[in-house]
Amino acid sequence: MKLLFRKFKNVFILSQRQRKLIFLVFWLSIYRNILLLCGSKKAFTEHILQNQKVKAVLTDGKIAIAKDITMAIHIVNNYLPWKNVCRHQSWQAVSLLLKYQIPFDYFVGIDKTKSIKEGHSWVKVNGRFICGRCNVKEYSVFFKV
């Protein structure tokens, strides 16, 4: 009970924007799963990036929003009852970064250190990871936006 009360109390420490982003990430996670079940192309990051380019300048305010997006994805990932793997997290991050007009880099790579090739995706803003933190040197990047 104390743990539940402590977690509930922590919600009030967060700013209104952070609470909003946590709600949005949670909703985007549900929405993407629905899109996947329906077989929609909108469930893939590459599809939502086709006609969307961010030409905005990165300001201190936008860097703060990007940090809040990172925090929201991390928090929601810890509490979801389903897997929210790197591909899902990247889709959520790209959706929010496009919404807030924050310039970003989106990567998809294949692990070159393992015999069974595994894919991984990650998003960076200003050289910092938003989601999918990894050792980039271990991956062969085959898609970058």
UniProtKB/TrEMBL annotation:
InterPro entries: McjB-like, McjB_C. Keywords: Membrane, Transmembrane, Transmembrane helix. It comes from the Bacteria. The chain crosses the membrane at residues 21-37. Residues 65-142 form the Microcin J25-processing protein McjB C-terminal domain. NCBIfam families: lasso_biosyn_B2 (NF033537). This is Microcin J25-processing protein McjB C-terminal domain-containing protein. It comes from Flavobacterium commune. The lineage of its organism: Bacteria, Pseudomonadati, Bacteroidota, Flavobacteriia, Flavobacteriales.
